Amino acid sequence: MSTPTADVVVTGLGATTPLGGDVASTWEALLAGRSGVSRITDDWAKDFPAQLVARLTIEPAEVLDRVRIRRLDRSQQVAVIAAEEAWRDAAGADSGVDPLRVAVVFGTGIGGAVTLLDQDDILEAKGPKRVSPFTIPMLMPNGPAAAVGLAVGARAGVHAPVSACASGAEAIRWGLDLLRLDRADMVVVGGTEACVHPLPMAGFSAMRAMSTRNDEPERASRPFDKGRDGFVLGEGAAALVLERADAAKARGAKIHARLAGAGGTADGYDLVAPHPEGEGAGRAITAAIRDAGLTAADIGHVNAHATSTPIGDTAEAAAIRDAIGDHPLVTATKSQTGHLLGAAGALESVFTILALREQLVPATANLDDPDDDAAVQALDIVRRDARKATFSAALNDSFGFGGHNMALVFTTV
Amino acid sequence: MPSTADIQAGLAEILEEVAGVAPADATPEKSFTDDLDVDSLSMVEIATAVEDKFGVAIPDDELANIKTVGDAMSFIEKNQG
């Protein structure tokens, strides 16, 4: 019988990203310092202020069958690819788990926007009879979770948190709760995003949120650097398989890490601007550490949300310094992956787990000249080369437009 | 005017494209839902593709009566212009 303090572990990892088509190639590219960012060469982008994007390295059509490519929005395709890798990694199909006890929690920030826009083009050009009967399932924000649920045969429940760029992290937190509440025995959690299209690009640009360093794509995403001028839109998905530690050990599963705790708060400050001192972010971090039964001193590494926006990075630096201190090794992997929005929290959780497992913190690319901000100056941000370290607990935080703050604590087993 | 064999071949092409059905499986006695795993949304796509390929529109109430590949072939044969 599980209790609210049941130990939950990670037994599967999956990802398809601008750095690689799976977890291993993504991690290798991250450590090698490679950038996933390039300049859009399509005609439509010519007059756009921001022309940079971090696209997938492996097209979904190379991995999935033609029928699924046709029926799933791109955000759903990558969700399924990442989830299937995680499910294989966990040997989920051979685990003997009852499908009635398998759940899915998969978030997205934007969902099937590209389907919506493409089908609107068809509506305008050819009329309503030519709109695909798959339009609604392809654009609905629970679509990725539902597609993953079908892929792994989950029947305990399929859930889809939507909290902008905190969605992926929120999904992981929900998964932890489901296992603690004994509502499932295995949960596939993650986040996904694939909305590279003129309209979202124009919308984010209109918010002045995107980098316009168009002539230096690989140098554009520069979290915590003085010269940062916005994020770079990325696409991809990441997934984790969670289960209770006793069950995982009983079936002899490979255990990547323990998901020790989670915290979530809301800023209650502004619709999109973060609280300048990261007040809500700091509360989420503190709540996650407390939930894990740890203290701030235990956290040896933080994979920061750090999107490379002028306001967001300093607010987060303040939150990390105030809630944890200046001792953890901080990294900002969006410097190479770009910002995967609803997938970011899931992908960065994968990175946090790998850093913990290998006792190696990836470097923050493009951090040539750290911001003069006192909080940024106080942090120990890993730059230039990955750094070896000894730590048993690490934290990943994610924040979303809407004032959503999420933090997750992973520990060694 | 396409022959019965042409219609069967054309339908097989549509089924492969829309629902991933192997062309050899698209034989007249096959039920779309029971044998070929074609769901109701895919049937709507198939109807659109049939209209494009054969110039035969299938009204929704007729579509509901089309259960097998043979039913679809007969409908196209009877209604083509």
From TrEMBL, chain B:
Gene3D superfamilies: ACP-like
Keywords in alphabetical order: Cytoplasm, Fatty acid biosynthesis, Fatty acid metabolism, Lipid biosynthesis, Lipid metabolism, Phosphopantetheine, Phosphoprotein
Predominant place of localization: cytoplasm
Pathway listed: Lipid metabolism; fatty acid biosynthesis
SUPFAM superfamilies according to UniProt: ACP-like (SSF47336)
PANTHER family in the record: ACYL CARRIER PROTEIN, CARRIER DOMAIN-CONTAINING PROTEIN
Protein name according to UniProt: Acyl carrier protein
